[in-house]
User: What shape does this take?
Amino acid sequence: MTDVEFHQMRERGFVRLPGLAVGELERLRRAVERLEGIARGLTVSTGDFVLEAPGIGGWAAWQQGARGLAGVLRSVAHAHVHAPELDAVQRSLELAEGPVARAVGAPGTLVNAFLWAKPPVVGSEKPWHQDMAFAPPGFDVEAHGVVTVWIALAPATRRNGCLEFIPGSHRLGLLPHTGDRERLPGEPPLKRAVEPHVPQDRLPSGVEPVAVPLDPGSAVMFDGMVLHRSAPNTTAALPRTAVSFVYRVPRPSWTRGPAPAAGGARR
Assistant: This one.
């Protein structure tokens, strides 16, 4: 990570890492094929595997126990457990000891990995949120943070739902999120589920979102406090497929400084 990249991570809460995983694309894609094979017979989201559902969205359909599109994935949590090749790739790329450590001053510890599939036409949006809002019980948000390395396996564009960030929002602290919490195993389905999100009137005022298109093999690294979202995939035939690796780190000092004011509508 260059001095410029470090400055961007500290000041904006995210930074592009062009070409980070170009040499590992084939292994990453084979891992995704393994995950897709596991999901092929599913018609309802279960466990770590969330299916896309037109008109509802994958997360809401999952929480409502509604049928999704057979075998059409929206996301997979703990993807490195279901496809161990992913763990091998992140070790080969030395993500924890390389870009993550250079960003925060200490190596990260892998805590989760995800497949993020956003299929054409039906790929649903992910609303504005901060990843630290979903930290598991017992996670000390004063002592630790998370840093995510999100790697595109297909072109991520504005039209098919690349990530968007609000620069500097990682220094706002943890904002209130509206919506339903994810139901625990054994809890009944919800009648109507609203995905947790930061409402429009709680977003920083006067700060324009920044879209981050990526070529295959390129990545964006971001702090767990930064506000981010992704729009629906409105293309007819361009899937947006990515994997992300989430690392626990000592809470970066940059998340404690001044930041843009929250509480007003963005201009």
Remarks:
- Confidence is low (pLDDT under 50) at residues 258-267.
- The first helix runs from residue 3 to 12.
- The radius of gyration is 18 Å.
- The chain has one domain: 3-256.
